[in-house]
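Dear support,

Our group has been running a series of protein-ligand predictions, and this particular one with 2'-deoxycytidine-5'-monophosphate is the one our PI (initials K.S.) wants archived with full inputs and outputs. We had some confusion internally about which version of the output was final, so please treat the block below as the authoritative record. The input we submitted was:
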Amino acid sequence: MSTSRIIAIDGPAGAGKTTIARALAQRLGLQYLDTGAMYRAVTVAALRRGVATTDVDAVGLLAQNLSIDVSDAGVYTDGDDVTVAIRSAEVNAAVSAVAANSAVRQVLRSRQRAWGDERGCGVIEGRDIGSVVFPDAILKVYLTASPRVRAERRVAQAGGDVDEIEAAIALRDGSDSSRVDSPLVQADGSVMVDTTGLGIDEVLKRIEGFLEQR
Ligand code: DC
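Confirmed final output from the archive:
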């Protein structure tokens, strides 16, 4: 596997992964993959087809047969544009069950590895990229921030009540961290960056500093 030039960005919801991973990829001239969008895309397909997201076998089969295209141009499943649909409240509520499904994880993990192996480099964002998908990535970053700040960022992006969003984030963190298959953990050999109180440029500067040391 030619995984050495993969940069893995993991961490809980609202830690700043998407903003940072996108900006880092742009600065380094690399491609970027949002693996959360892949779990969300399977969730949208299940909801639209009337497949219960808790039906492990049916959702696993659905993922296996679903074409998922995630790029800067948007997110498509079997040719349908689901770029907006994957961010709905309904999907936010259902995606953790889909992400806990081992059959789904197996399918998506192998597609994520294929993405990295085809390019030989890139910035990949998720929960298990440094721990499971690309454990030999050249740099593994675990981004985090206080729950309050993470909720405030979500409110700034999409509105809503900060207390309710903080509670929803806590629920999703709990389920992402406690699932049996590839729980959210800080990967061995990763560097932690707490983005509470840090601006985007400062976070990028720190990550580029770690990269220079590799
Ligand atoms: O990063 P996000 O909020 O778009 O992720 C959506 C869900 O998918 C969230 O519950 C975490 C899960 N996920 C995962 O389990 N593994 C990944 N590599 C990426 C996301």
